[in-house]
Design brief:
Blueprint lengths: L34 H6 L25 H4 L4 H9 L48 H9 L5 E2 H4 L7 E8 L16 H13 L7 E4 L3 H14 L14 E2 L2 E3 L12 H15 L6 H8 L5 H6 L3 H12 L8 E6 L1 H11 L15 E5 L3 E8 L4 E7 L5 E3 L5
Parallel strand pairs: 1-9, 2-6, 3-5, 3-6
Antiparallel strand pairs: 2-8, 4-5, 7-10, 8-9
Helix pairs in contact: 3-4, 6-7, 9-12
Length: about 400
Amino acid sequence: MLTLSACKGHTGITDPNGDDDPQAVLDTTHYRPWDKYSSARQSSSSIESSSSSIPKSSSSSAVLSSSSAKTRSSSSAKISSSSSQENWDQQSSSSKQNQQWNPWGNWNQSSSSSSSKQSNSGSKIAELNGDTDCQVIRSTTDKFSRLQDILPCVKSDEKVAFIIRHAARNKSASGDQAGLNDEGRKQSKAFGEELKDIGDIYFMNTKVYRTMETVLKIVEGKEQAFSETNVPFQSKEADDHLETSDIEDTYLVTDDRKLQNCRNTLQSKYNWSWGWSPYSYIAYEEKPVPECKEAFYDIDERMAELMETHFTYNKMHPITMAISHDKFLVPLVIAASDRQINLQFHQHENDFNYWINYLTGIAIIVDASNNRVILPTTALSDPILRVFPDN
């Protein structure tokens, strides 16, 4: 079993009853929405993914923006943040059990400081009148928030990192040198176009070509100067990017041989054959089979190492975009939601309604005291993969 902290309050907003309270610690006077970016979002509030086969609710169009927030009431803001996403997440009865289970431990601490120091993002800073919108977004962990909506809710004295899956690929394109498909290139570029009016982004990627291609298409759409122009990148580290294996699924695995033993055991015991299944299984199961327990690091300890290595305030850039992989991110999303987002693919193999979509993952908001807010996030209109076509 993974050793998990039992403390509550991973959003940094709690009351004595253990329920999230948006009013508890949030100071809303220093949010840093980028005014051009926020108003532009109304006309391009979502990036459609070709992998989504389920019709979206009309409420999905109720995307939060700083301009619409000015005229919205508190109740309508909550509807925008939650009702618009009801089609996104399947809630299972087991996901609401063990409410004290908190895998973030001491690397996701409550955020309570409220300095007004400006960041070096190079973006326009404006006051957000719709404070309730940001309170809701920053306290929502049981659903995915749009990445484009989280950005304006980062305070002026905070930095933010997004660890998200690369853009779309073909099912058969799974090797390290496999790139994106046409839809993935369109997704990445369209996403970049939505980010034109924020400051320069610092990127992280893995050795896998499709993560690099995702970066290049984002900067192309964003029209951001970038030190690399082709895949593979010529340099593993530069002023604007870093290649690291710390955001690969291997970072969670103790040993490849032990992982294979875990897979073999799950197949013989449960007839689970997909290589994805151990990653969702280990994130939900409190008493995993010994072979799987041995195959994975303790999530608390491993994530604490990741935070200390890459995501402390002094080490971070104002905005970081880490392009990663689904098997690395699924356990993190599950943990960020306190297991309320249902990604139990191991129980539903071949059903892609239980797996994350492309450009989906987590947001990490960090203040100068290294207090953190961790949120499930997506850049697409649907955070769930739904379908996984061969081409």
